[in-house]
Amino acid sequence: MKTLFLPLLQVLLLLSCTNNPKEETATGEQPAAISPPPGENKPVVQPALPSFRMMNSNNQVVDLAQFKGKKVFVNLWATWCPPCRAEIPSIESLGARTDKSKTEFVLLSLDDNFDKAQNYAVSNNMKLPVYYPAGTLPALFNTEGIPFTVIFNEKGEIIYQNMGSDNYDTQRFMDLLKAP
């Protein structure tokens, strides 16, 4: 019985660092509408590529919105999250195969201490840039679980969204990150 339990537990841990099911937004789907404030009739559209200040590994503040005009792959992760660590090699591999002039990767660490994420990145030979929030997370990134990945197109629109671990080193994601 113990032999069957351990593999089942490992599979459950690889899905997500929460008990929430996977959520995915298909390519081209519009951002979710939020209920209008009282007294207003128009729904408020959730902002896509938000203006959000992050710290990079050189201790420089970078705004996520500055990457508009490129495809932007944002992954929220933490060193303490087994599914996050499990999917990073596939993100690294995808990053190595994409055109850096047309695609930006943002691995946004949610660790309590940015040094943990930076040390993890160095010890695991990560090549993609690791960032840390330099302010409050935008509403879009306030998720109930990690890993959480959002891909934006050049206009800043969400073209993919997923809570839970995935294999990003596939032709599907290569095609999604190619120029229109």
CATH homolog superfamily of the domain at 62-180 = Glutaredoxin
Strand order of the largest sheet: 1-10-9-6-7-8-4-5
At CATH level 3, the topology of the domain at 62-180 is: Glutaredoxin
Terminal CA distance reads 51 Å
Strand content: 15-25%
Say how many strands there are. 10
Secondary-structure map with pairings?
Elements: H1 2-15, E1 24-25, E2 33-34, E3 44-45, E4 53-56, E5 61-63, E6 71-77, H2 82-96, E7 103-109, H3 114-123, E8 130-133, E9 148-152, E10 158-163, H4 171-177
Parallel strand pairs: 6-7, 7-8
Antiparallel strand pairs: 1-10, 2-3, 4-5, 4-8, 6-9, 9-10
List keywords for this structure.
23% strand, alpha+beta, eight-stranded mixed β-sheet, disordered N terminus, 4 helices, Glutaredoxin
Q: In a nutshell, what does this entry contain?
A:
Helices cover about 25% and strands about 25% of the residues. The chain has helices at about 1-15, 80-95, 115-125, 170-175, and strands at about 25, 35, 45, 55, 60-65, 70-75, 105-110, 130-135, 150, 160-165. It has a domain at about 60-180: Glutaredoxin, CATH 3.40.30.10.
